[in-house]
Each structure stands twice: as C-alpha cells, then as structure tokens.
Amino acid sequence: MPDSGGSIRARNIHKYFNHGEVKALDGAGINLRRGEIHGLLGENGSGKTTLVRCIAGMTRPDSGEILMDGIPAARHNRSKVSGKIAYIPQHPRLVPSLTVQEFLHLGMNPAGQGRDEAAGKIRRISERLRIDLPLATRGNRVPANLVTATMIVEALLKAPDFLILDEPSTSFTPLETENLFSLLQELAAEGMGILIVSHKIREVRQLAHRLTLLRKGKSIAETEARDLSLEEISRILMGTGDRAAELTPSSPGGICLEVRNLSKRSRESFIRNISFSLRRGEILALSGIRENGLDCLERILNASVQPDSGEILMAGGTPYPREPERIKMAGIAMVPSDRLESGAALGLPVMENAAVLVRKELSRYGILGEKKKESYTRELLSEYGISAHPRSLTSALSGGMLQRLILGREILSASGLVILCEPAWGLDVKGRLEVYQRILSLRDRGAGILLLASDIDEVLEIADRLLVLYNGEITAGFQRDQFDHGRIGEAMLGICGTGDGK
Q1: What CA–CA distance (Å, rounded) separates 467 from 57?
Q2: Which residues in 316-399 belong to E strands, given as ranges?
Q3: Both 118 and 201 in a single domain?
Q4: By Cβ atoms counted within 10 A, which residue in 94, 221, 396, 430 is the most buried?
Q5: 407, 323 contact by CB (below 8 A)
C-alpha cells in the first residue's frame, strides 16, 4: 500500500564500480519521510554519495529497490521522479558562460510567467536563505559558497517534495550555515522531506530528527538523533571516539617563506599590504572568510595570478616561483582548496594522479613503467585508507577519498615548504585526525607548513600561530596559548582584533 504521508524507501541497495572490483554499496537502505530532516552519516568511502545518487535517479543500482510512496520508482514517470526530488551535489557547478540570474531562469523554464514574476520568486527564496546572490556574475566567477547557495535557490524554485543536500555546509561560513539550517527547519515544518549527507557528526545530530549510519556500504543503524550521543555515533561509524590530535610544542627554525607588503585587487576579492614569515618546524595558519582574502592569497601562492605589488621570498632570499609548473620544481608541496579544478585530473586513472610527483624517482631513462606506477599507487592507497583500484577513474572517488589521494600524494613528497589550503574539507572524523597527525609529523621533521583555512576548529586543532584575514588585511594574530574560539570568530567577522601573534 502506498504511504499516505509520503516517503522514499531504499532497500537492500547494491552498487559496484570498475567492473565489479569496487563495492560501493552492500545492502544499504534508508527511509525518508516528508516533514522531517534525516541525516545520513558515514566515514569517507562509506557509500553516502552513491546511495543518494541512486535515490535521486542519477545512478542505477545493481540490485535492490527504491520505493516512492510505496510504489517502485521504476514504475514512476522519469519527469515525476525528478519533480519530486531535488539533489544538490557535494561539488555543485554553474554554467560558466551564464550569469547567476540566467542560470536560475533557465532552471525555472519560465514559460507562461513574466520575468518580473520569476525574479520575485528568486528574491523571496534568497531572502529566506538570508544571502545576496551575485545575479549579474557569470558562473565561472562565482565563489564556492555562493555557487552552493545558488544551487539551493535553484532547487527550491522547483518546490520539490524532497530535498537532498550532500555536504552543503562545506563552503559556508558559520553564519551562512546557521541561516541554511534555519531554512531547512522551516521547510521541514512546511512538509518537505530533507536529507542531509555529511561527515560532520555534531552538526547533523543537532539538526536532524532521525539518522541513518553507513559503514562500508552497509546501513548499520537507523535511529532517532537524540537517542545517540556524539561519542556513540563516532564509535558505531569508526570504532573510535573523536579524539584530538596530540600537539607537542613546536621548535621553529630558519625562515622558509617570507611575504612582504603583498597586495592584489581582483573582482572576486583582494589583499592589501600583507606581511608575514613562516619558519621551518612550525604551522602558521591564515584564517578568515575566504572572500576576505584567503582565496586571493591562494591564487597568488599557486601562481595562477601575480600580485600588484610586494614580494614573496623563500629560504635564502630565493624569489618565490611565478609560474605554476615551477612550484613543484622548487620542492613546494601544495594542496589546493578546489580539488576538482586544480587538485586532480578526474578523467585519468587514479595511478596517473597518484604518481605524478614521483615520475622522476620511479622512472628509468625517463620512462615510468606501468608496474612501478601501479605498485607505488597501491602503497599510497593502503597508507591513506583509500578504497579504490589504481586503474579506476579518479572521477569515481568520493569527495573524501579524492581529498585523501591529493593529500597523500603531496605529503609523501614534502620536505621543506608545505602549503595546505582547506586540507580537511570533506574528511570524516577519523580521516581528519589521521591527516592532522601526518601534518604534525611533517612539522616535527622540520617542514614549514602554511595552512590556509576558513574552519576555526581545524585551525585550533593543529596551528602553532594564527593570523586572521579580514577585508583583505591581517587584522589579528594569536599565539597558540592565546587561542580562543570566540575571540577568533569575532576577529574573522571584523568585530575585534589584536596585534599579537604576527
């Protein structure tokens, strides 16, 4: 009998990739109801994204069934299914050549309604999300947080019965996340079913009514959110509590990176007269809202743009590379914030991305053999707990597994200067702690680590010093013994500042 209240049920879902070599789902299931917020939790590679893509009709399961209102989804008209479910992926993308307004109008298919009426709907939903969309900006110029916001508005314009969001808060500031969650609670109260997919246990437990826990492709628990503590959820998912990384005092050595009076103005963001130095054997964090200068500084450090003024020097006064290909030649390890665009070639096999930095060491007479490449990749995958075959396409990796691949590739070859941009994005509790320990080990071996991160918790976990960027300038500095979540948050929002720590 169909469920009168409206529901989506996935039962005993199995899914394999790479000709059956990679098992993504192994009997997974979930029960979504209208009028509630449901959290789907699991460690990286547990099958979360694959399961929701099956529910949204974007991936066909190898076996199992999906029921909509008690009727197999296969019997429903395809357009009816897509009209009932709106899915926002972990890494949403806009059409590069269209403005945000054009993109939203295209998604609305506004035949029979005037442009003023369509614009009014866009404005009302944006106001509910409490965010100003850059309507006149083309898709390739929109920052990550506003891309996600645009996709949320686009989904809600269709008035779906169910809204699925995969890691929606990854690129949001704390205030933007709070506003999003308030809207989701309103939508659930109005009768919409919400499924939020995340590795952020604390965040989802506070928001959701019910939880489904996935591990290694299996649904291992479905429960009321209030019935399990954070520690219990963590133990069920990963067999461990959320323990902090063990941080010992740093022993800074000589300067390995010095930034002097650096300025750059662009349409997206700017920095103004930034100066700081990084020493070997320490972790220096620059933190703030990305549009307040972090993204601009990252583009200068990855040599995709050049500063308007100022200079960057490495150890011994050597000028910092001004061309992307020379960064690796200079022995600099870099993990970009946008892993899809600049972190990996998604259309190539995993082993091509894994071995790109060690070709010279592994090759003979300039030729890198397939066996050596595959053997090296297997070791890296095992070392970093990445569930993949060396010859499978990189695009098949989950977001967390892709981040592990990029981090592992860069960290294994690092020695001197290491630049990490949002290194814990997309990682679950266990993966994040493992990465933190590896970063601390690098520091203790004498590497100088520059951490660009908008996540305060990440900074508090491992940084020795912190500088806050606000409105393009360094407005506050903190030594580790001065770290205070509230004060740092206020500095990131421009409420207060301090001169210590620089």
Answers
A1: 45
A2: 333-335
A3: yes
A4: 94
A5: no
| 261 CB-near residues (< 8 Å, 6+ apart) | 273, 274, 275, 309, 310, 311
pLDDT of 99: 94
pLDDT digits (tens, 9 = 90+) for 67-106: 988 888 766 556 556 678 999 998 888 999 999 999 998 8
Query: Domain residues for 121?
Result: 7-238
Task: Report how far residue 240's alpha carbon sits from residue 126's, in angstroms, rounded to the nearest whole number.
Answer: 40
Left, alpha or beta for 134 (phi > 0: left; psi -120 to 50: alpha)?
Answer: beta
Q: Give the pLDDT confidence of 250-305 residue by residue, as tens digits.
A: 889 999 999 999 999 876 668 999 999 999 999 999 998 777 788 899 999 999 99
Give me the pLDDT at residue 241, please: 44
Whole-model pTM: value is: 0.65
User: Is the CB of residue 63 less than 8 Å from the CB of residue 5?
Assistant: no
The answer to the question of residue 298 being in a domain is yes
Shared domain for 299 and 173, answered yes or no, is: no
Q: Is the dihedral of CA 98, 297, 282, 444 positive or negative?
A: positive
Residues 398, 436, single domain; the answer is: no
Taking a C-beta distance cutoff of 8 angstroms, is the pair 44, 401 a contact?
A: yes
Instruction: Answer yes or no: do 250 and 307 share one domain.
Output: yes
What's the rounded Cα separation, in Å, for the pair 425 and 144?
A: 13
pLDDT digits (tens, 9 = 90+) for 476-501: 999 999 988 778 877 876 766 554 54
Q: How many domains does the chain have?
A: 3
CATH number of the domain within which 40 lies: 3.40.50.300
- Give 2's pLDDT tier (boundaries 50, 70, 90): very low
Measured from the Cβ of residue 361, the count of other Cβ atoms closer than 10 Å reads: 11
What's the CA gap between 226 and 379, in Å, rounded?
41
